[in-house]
Design brief:
With 136 residues, the chain is α+β, with helices and mostly antiparallel strands. It contains 5 helices and 6 strands. Strand 4 and strand 5 form a beta hairpin.
Length: 136
């Protein structure tokens, strides 16, 4: 598994340091987006700045995308189609007001916009409500 993560990082032109491998492994196991504080709780002996830099590097390289939620950034792994030039996450990000988890709802996809008169660099689609799990 460690070798797979190293290969994924190298494919994104990112050096596979120990902390990067650990953070990637943690994010890979998650179904929900995580804040810096969430990640930090898993690595209580690690330096907060190192974790922050790891997440920012991952975002720059197209490894994670960030979701802005109530003045907090949360991070979730991108699909392989993302890279340092373009994040390909044109789907709904859903925040549950009960369990306070943020998930990607990829069944809600924005239509492709291709018009040569302008260039869209970023689209943020965010919804708040109650998730399936909390409705039960």
């Amino acid at each position: 598994m460690k070798k797979d993560i190293e290969q994924k990082l190298l494919a994104k032109n990112t050096s596979p340091t120990s902390m990067r491998i650990l953070v990637y492994e943690l994010l890979e196991q998650q179904q929900v987006a995580m804040s810096l504080s969430d990640v930090e709780r898993h690595f209580y002996k690690a330096d907060r700045v190192t974790i922050y830099r790891t997440l920012k590097t991952f975002e720059e390289k197209g490894i994670v995308h960030s979701i802005q939620e109530n003045n907090t950034s949360k991070y979730i792994l991108c699909h392989d189609a993302c890279d340092s030039k373009m994040h390909n996450d044109s789907h709904l990000h859903f925040y549950c007001k009960v369990c306070q988890e943020t998930t990607c709802k990829e069944e809600f996809i924005l239509p492709s916009v291709s018009d040569h008169k302008y260039r869209i660099d970023e689209i943020k689609l965010f919804a708040k409500g109650v998730c399936e799990k909390c409705l039960k």
